[in-house]
From TrEMBL:
InterPro entries, sorted: Peptide/Ni-bd (IPR030678), SBP_5 (IPR039424), SBP_5_dom (IPR000914)
Ranges of residues in domain Solute-binding protein family: 135-550
GO CC annotation: ATP-binding cassette (ABC) transporter complex; outer membrane-bounded periplasmic space
Any matching Pfam family: SBP_bac_5
Protein name per its UniProtKB record: ABC transporter substrate-binding protein
Keyword terms: Signal
PANTHER family referenced in this protein's UniProt entry, alphabetically: ABC TRANSPORTER PERIPLASMIC BINDING PROTEIN, PERIPLASMIC BINDING COMPONENT OF ABC TRANSPORTER
Single GO MF annotation: peptide transmembrane transporter activity
Gene Ontology biological process: microcin transport; peptide transport
């Protein structure tokens, strides 16, 4: 119930993001293939703009210049003098209660939390810029004048955890592997417009593109890199990539696996030979000597374990827990501290997603009626202590959100599609129904009943029925489990639906089963959160394009197939200016919101974090970040007096 994301900060491509969590009042991040999902979130964070002439540079910004000059020493939001040491203990970062592999890039199974700390990419971004990228494994970047290729030179100091130099061959091996059938399909979809990776020399790799696209250099630079020796057997053959389980990954990241047990605990230690510790993009980061994850069986056990001192930091996503359960003696005496931290990631979209593959949801009037039955204002008063704002856009809390009437730039995109679109798209932006006076739930339900009647659903024989006499019945699928927080929300929603004669059944399943059902699109309605990003891009194609609707395991949750949406998606990813990008995003927002594919929920613009008083954080906060990633990457252990000082600064 704070703004979360599918991975790292919107301005960081660091593969510790693979451990990201997204639970907002019981909403779990839809992580069908965890690595692919976090790759998507991280990759779409950066955009490159080509210089007029191809030449090597240390960093690239989409607009203007990067914030940090060539000789910068560290990012502003880190403490370059942070002490190193100590063991940071964390709990489940998501719904995962066990893991069965170390490979986060394949579809089947559940990767260990924190495994992203083992991998790095060619570039990384700063968490206080909207669109910039700085060299990480690469020490310079050369973007061709025609934007049909980007070339990276690999830092000669870059080393994998086994001591081998990172080479262009390893980068190509990573690309070829991730785009093969052995990796999660989202990778090949995301890299579809990268024609190939070419080894220029042992230290130089060139990515060639099928067409000019400002996002493609981002996707290439943000790709995780691993050694070609990962899975290599003594006889020189490789274990198939999709069969890698507990074989030790060989990455270049700051941490390596020290120990693990029973698929429930894992400890990472800082690699004493880590090659990049002195890089400006790494100074002040990775301050813990060890990071341990303990996986608890449910949310209640996890919370009680924190209050008992079993781990060090808790990111709270449930508002009523923050007010009523994250309390007690250790909070009162100052051993545990609670703080809210502002972030600017954008709200994204969270809600009840409908599966258009089910005939029940194919009529837009039905979908709008289901939206009208959701009483956010009551939930916010009764359950959330007034802590949330209703989601009213796919890009809420960002400048990509559509408001008011369409602008001239939006109309230039929408007018050619007029015959395919709901006429309401060309009017004021969709407003979510309210129940605060003078509005009421009763009035909303009367409107919903009229819409349902127009769609052929009328109340008779004790239920809402269609012309064939079939009752309106569906299932709401969720993996929140015990203590997850969604049950009272769904119960209230089901109660309102019952007033319309609709029967909705709430079913909770465990994390592993829900992943299988997502892969097969086996759900009617489900609870999902898509993270926000200040710069929308290729991830929108994965979520909404016609070509992904039938791709097993894709992010197209609703099964949307719309030529008009496909056209707007093309305009979005091929935007040449920030203005064009904004017009495309807002146009897409109008069309999607008028489609009523989701019953939107709520968002918060702060991260809620409770932590042991021995922990400290930098005085300057980043702008675009995920709470768990921020703790892991930039916090440290300090004396209690130091912690108190930094707390008072905020």
């Amino acid at each position: 119930m704070t703004t979360g994301s599918r991975g790292a900060s919107p301005r960081r491509v660091q593969w510790r993001a693979l451990t990201g969590a997204c639970l907002r009042d019981g909403i779990s991040h839809r992580t069908q293939a965890l690595a692919a999902r976090f790759l998507i979130a991280a990759c779409v964070s950066f955009w490159f703009i080509a210089p007029h002439d191809a030449h090597a540079v240390y960093a690239i910004a989409q607009y203007g210049e990067p914030k940090y000059p060539p000789d910068f020493k560290h990012f502003d939001y880190v403490n370059p003098d942070a002490p190193k040491g100590g063991t940071l203990v964390l709990a489940n970062p998501d719904r995962l209660t066990s893991f069965d592999k170390f490979n986060p890039f394949t579809m089947r199974g559940n990767p260990a939390p924190g495994i992203g700390m083992l991998f790095e990419s060619l570039t990384t971004g700063s968490s206080d810029e909207v669109a910039s990228a700085y060299g990480l494994l690469a020490d310079d970047i050369r973007l061709a004048p025609d934007r049909l290729s980007v070339t990276f030179h690999i830092n000669p100091r870059a080393r994998f955890s086994n001591g081998d130099a990172v080479t262009a061959g390893d980068v190509k091996f990573s690309f070829d592997t991730l785009t093969s059938p052995q990796a999660a399909p989202q990778f090949s979809a995301f890299f579809a417009d990268i024609k190939r990776a070419v080894v220029v020399d042992p230290a130089t790799i060139r990515f060639e593109f099928r067409q000019p696209n400002r996002e493609l250099p981002l996707l290439a630079g943000g790709m995780p890199v691993f050694s070609h020796k990962w899975g290599l057997k003594a006889d020189g053959t490789h274990i198939p990539f999709d069969q890698l389980a507990f074989q030790q990954p060989i990455g270049s990241g700051p941490y390596v696996i020290e120990s693990y047990a029973n698929g429930r605990t894992i400890t990472y230690k800082r690699d004493p030979s880590y090659w990049g510790a002195s890089l400006p993009v790494r100074v002040g980061t990775d301050n813990f000597e060890r990071i341990t994850y303990k996986l608890y069986s449910d949310a209640t056990a996890r919370l009680e374990a924190f209050k008992a001192g079993e781990y060090d930091a808790l990111v709270e996503y449930i508002a009523r827990n923050w007010v009523r359960r994250d309390v007690g003696k250790r909070f009162d005496n100052g051993e545990l501290i609670k703080r809210e931290f502002r972030q600017h990631n954008g709200a994204g979209m969270q809600g009840f997603f409908m599966n258009l593959r089910r005939p029940l949801f194919q009529d837009v009037r039905v979908r709008e009626a289901l939206d009208l039955a959701f009483d956010f204002q009551w939930l916010n008063r009764q359950l959330f202590f007034g802590g949330y704002t209703r989601v009213d856009s796919y890009f809420a809390d960002s400048d990509m959100q559509a408001t008011g009437m369409p602008s001239d730039g939006e109309l230039a995109l929408l007018n050619p599609l007029r015959a395919q679109l709901n006429p309401a798209v060309f009017g004021p932006m969709t407003v979510q129904p309210e129940t605060d006076p003078p509005n009421s739930l009763r009035a909303n339900l009367l409107k919903a009943r009229a819409l349902l009647a127009d769609a052929g659903w009328t109340y008779r024989n004790g239920a809402l029925r269609n012309a064939k006499g079939q009752p309106f019945t569906f299932e709401i699928l969720d993996d929140s489990g015990s203590g997850g927080g969604m049950e009272p929300v769904v119960t209230a929603y089901i109660r309102n639906l019952a007033k319309l004669g609709i029967t909705a059944n709430f079913r909770t399943v465990d994390f592993a089963l829900i992943q299988k059902r997502y892969e097969a699109f086996d759900y009617d309605m489900t609870t999902i959160r898509w993270p926000g990003t200040p710069i929308p891009g290729q991830e929108q194609v994965s979520r909404f394009s016609s070509k992904t609707a039938d791709e097993q395991g894709s992010d197209n949750i609703v099964g949307l197939k719309s030529p008009a949406v496909d056209t707007l998606l093309s305009a979005l990813v091929h935007a040449q200016t920030r203005e064009q990008l904004t017009d495309a995003a807002r146009s897409l927002d109008r069309v999607l919101m008028r489609g009523y594919y989701v019953v939107p929920h709520w968002y918060s613009s702060t991260h809620r974090i409770a932590y042991q008083r021995e922990l400290a954080y930098p005085k300057t906060l980043p702008l675009y970040y995920e709470a768990n990633d921020w703790i892991i990457s930039t916090w440290w252990f300090a004396q209690p007096s130091t912690v108190q000082s930094t707390d008072e600064a905020h």
